[in-house]
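Thread: "does anyone have the structure for this chain?"

Original post by V.I.:
We have the sequence but no experimental structure in hand. Need at least a predicted one for the grant figures.
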Amino acid sequence: MIGQTVSHYKILEKLGEGGMGEVFLAQDTLLDRKVALKFLPDFMQQDPTARKRFLREAKSAAALDHPFICKIYETGEAEGKDFISMEYVQGTTLKEKLAEGPLALKGALRKAAEIAEALEAAHKHDIVHRDLKPSNIMLTPEGHVKVMDFGLAKRLVPVEGVGSQEQTISASLTKTGATLGTLAYMSPEQLRGEDVDTRSDIFSFGVTLYEMLTGVHPFKKGTSLETANAILNEVAAPLFRHMNEVPPVLQHTVRKMLAKEADRRYQLVHDVGTNLQELINEMADPSIQTKEAGIRPFEATGVPMGKPAGERSWRRALLVGLLALVVGTIAAGVAFWSLKRPTPHPLKKLAITFPPTAPLASSSSRPNLAISPDGRRTVYSANRDGTLQLYLRLIDQLEATPIPGTEGALAPFFSADGEWVGFYAGGKLKKVSLRTGASLTLCDGPAAWGASWAPTDKILFVPGAAMGIWQVSAGGGERQVLVAPDFKKGERSYRWPQVLPGGKAVLFTIGTTTSASYDDANIAVLSLETGEHWIVVKGGSYARYATTGHLVYARAGELLAVPFDLKRLKITGPPVSILQGVMMNPRSGAAQFAFSADGSLLYAPGESKMDEHTLLWVDRQGKVQPLPFSRVNYGGLRLSPDGRRLAVSIAGPNSDVWVYDLVRGTSDRLTFDTAIDTLPVWSPDGKRVTFASNRAGTMDIYWTSADGSGSPVRLYGSEHPLFPGSWAPDGKVLAFWEAHPSDIWVLSLEGEGEREAKLFLSTPFDEREPRFSPDGRWIAYSSNESGQFEVYVLPYPGPSERTQISVGGGEQPVWNPKGGELFYRSGKKIMVVAIQTKPELTASKARLLFETPGLQYDITPDSKRFVMLKRIEGDAGPTQINVVLNWFEE
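Reply from O.Q.:
Generated one for you, tokens below.
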């Protein structure tokens, strides 16, 4: 909807999404101001009764005019969608602030008093919020609060004529799966589905205030069911368990706000606000001695205020005596335990064995497993009938459950609360709720080079090989780049980010231009406050922070740990080997391990090895015939113009270009440099091979004699990585693409002097893989301008209108050398389009040629068969994941 105009509002960007609708930032074109537009969710649009009630209550809430309440301007409808226009509040949410830790006492009391004022104003208008929580409270740049989402509130006094519709409407909303509130902040009566009044808001306010003061949720547990049980049946721990000093009035206030029975709570939020304001006044008045008289942990019973001085004196004497007794007992205990150390938690080892029908995904080029922060849930990517899908298994259960909507998923990762799992699939970054099963596409993410969920509800991820680290809201929206590789410093890629505790810094892996192996990569830290990054470990990949104060990282299938100062973001000691035999891919840097905050380790046993591929002939009917060449890690392939030779790049510690003679079955190595040489492309006369190489620092374009004589010569270089696409048939122009930004250029070899490249196609999106048509008048390429990669054709030299060829996804366009057809790959399918280029371009509807067993491909000059490389998947992939409980004890 970005850029559209709804009523008199122009949509600018998406702010968030939840169970009760989507929220966008918009410009009010009539009053020239920014507003927040909330669109009702589809299930409510389809229920006339619920829709009518929702909008009526939003209009009632619009009557609230208070400085600490987000103002509702109007409700409206456009193109069949109802919306609410609200005040756009800048700042940060209380939830984001609490991610940094509890608030200072004075600041917490002042903000809590403002929240109480806001609730009191609403309650006076007979409006109950029903969803008060830290994420619905904004902190403005001036330090005040704004209570949000009163548009979801409930009127206590029924509107005339509505009668008994309330129960019907609530049942309708429940049936559709909408949550009227947020479980962790619901009152007991709200959880039981009973009618609620203003006292329910007081309970939710008490939970929020408890978090503000301590940084800890009083009831939240590992699962939603356990949390609900705690709200209904458990008493919150006293504040002094988490705070050094607690004014007695504050302890009493919070305890009464959290009473299970509504009748035992404060009946009016005004009384809560009065207590809070009295505390604020006492702390501000130096003449009042009680401002420093916070109770200590041993003073849990407290001394009632206002007692006579004599009574207070003997009580104080008694407390002093009790303190002496407690101190003596503690001292004796310390002496005893200094002689006898407590027994650590024993290590427990077990294995998760996969059924034959759903083994762990055998490719180790991406991480395939994850564990929740609390160690209760494991998620892994399994290969079922040739299709990847995520499976959920609780650590104490025997069976795994497939997670719907995660087909094709790679690189899973958990949210901080363990309720969501993020993953890559279909060229997108996505997330799925483990509680409801709802899934959401967040943004483009074709590469799957790792992601991490920050406590600020941002997701940091790597969308492309040379694109750096980006961030996107966990609710979806526009993605933003945080940091990109510095190619001049020998950095070729950033991968595997992990947000460190506190959310102010990120661990990540830097791939270097001096090695194709991530065993030789560097591990770095990025400060999100300054934007600076620095290397902390040389020679390793896939680092993860452990709460023991270590970085754990992988190198050649071995896990190493090194002490790490989280405050200074520095290494403080030498590395130590802690585990061997962990599956790892040195080409991608991915290691198959994960651990929880409490020390549960999850890993796939195996070895450190590159992906291996085999070369195949495949005819137009899909019949496969293996080629008699070694199984190695191929990185690109092109057939010579006469079809007798095949140029490939083979990755080892580095990467080199080879030429295979398909007639004689021989092979010749063309490049011998220690750099990365990859993606070979033949010249039209077959005498030279063009390729990309970083032997001069950045990835530039070179060519060399196809018979191995002479040395490679650089054709063209840039500060950004360059990759050859194809030569025009006359051999005078080379089309290539540049990474980050991903644009298409053409390089002419005509004329004398230094060669100059001309920009052929540049958009805000990624364009790559340019291929000249046999007549040289057109260039086919792939672009993600539609949100996924599709194949397009543009006339050369242009400019003119482009034609979309593929539908439903397309990459790797290849022309029939004889003309008349254009091929492309769509997932596991090779598609073909009948195409004419004279006098104008005309293309038929794409049709399936065959299901492809391979990844990259090229076509023979007679167009009768294809050469392909196929990843060797192994027999069935790893058969188990090893689990080590209490691993940190080691």
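V.I.: this helps a lot. The chain has eleven helices and 63 strands.
O.Q.: and The first strand starts at residue 5 and ends at 6.
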